[in-house]
Amino acid sequence: MRGRVPVAAGLAAVVLLTPMTGAQADPKPTVAQVKAKLSKLNAQADQLVDRYNAANEKWKKARQKYLTINEDYKKQNARVEELRSGLVSMAVSSYQVGDMGSWGGVFYSSNPDAMLSGLATLNHMSAERAGRLKAYEGAIKDLKNRRNQSKQVYKEAADVKDELADEKEKVDKLVREQMKLLRSLGTFNPGNPNSAGVVYNGPASGNALAALQFAYKQIGKPYRYGGTGPGAWDCSGLVQAAWAAAGVRLPRTSYEQWAWGASRRVSLDDLQPGDLLWHAGYGHVGIYAGDGKVVHAPQTGDVVKVVTLAEYHAIGAVRP
Q1: What is the pTM of this model?
Q2: Fewest CB within 10 angstroms: 23, 111, 152, 251, which?
Q3: What is the pLDDT of residues 216-244, one digit of tens each?
Q4: Distance between CA 56 and CA 36 in Å, rounded?
Q5: Coiled-coil regions in this chain (predicted)?
């Protein structure tokens, strides 16, 4: 039976030479699957963006603390030099009137500790000299304390800056995934940073009216994580700015805003225009506009807009 190919070998050849069919390749995700993944990413983004905002606020405070401490250090350094100069002048005067004694060269040391050590051996100083020396000693000690404080605060600020960079890297990665999915769906909305918004004509009054008028003027502007205006916003940045326009100062992040409102929480069955509304595990916040509507900055690839209360899925409310 020459020329006959064994059955097993023939089947193997067929398997090797036959291209993969569509059923065997990874199937293209459906629109529903892409939307489900995007929804999951949006929920993760709410958490990450809030952590990024918290780290950013922490960095701002740490940096300001360092600048303040460092400025105090510079001022104290100038005071030490002023006192040192006064002591040198006194030493020169003493020398000129023949009362220098063992003062010679002590005040010309560049080392404050050596200068103090030398002065401590003098036993014939006048009350004025003793007073000036005491002031100088105190100034030197204070200068050292401020210098050490400045170094410590600088280190703390540097650590916070590293923390901020880590959070930003995580958010940037997630945002890239969001944008890729949005573009695959054809639903990416870049928004308009110069949007004039729309006029609010709802039932709000007083401070709530001022807050909602501001928020409605931002409609159409893009969402951007960390955004605090004027051309782009994230959810808590919009809420903070809107209520600032009404004279109420809110914390920066959505979690901080929820904590701030611990004594101001209201039932979802008793909402009034201007109330702050949370959803997605308190990682996202918007403003109730009245008439069953909510204005908010949703997520990457979207814009500040108005949605129905039913769409928003609120889980908590605070009345500023």
Answers
A1: 0.67
A2: 23
A3: 999 999 999 999 999 999 999 999 999 99
A4: 30
A5: 31-65, 133-177
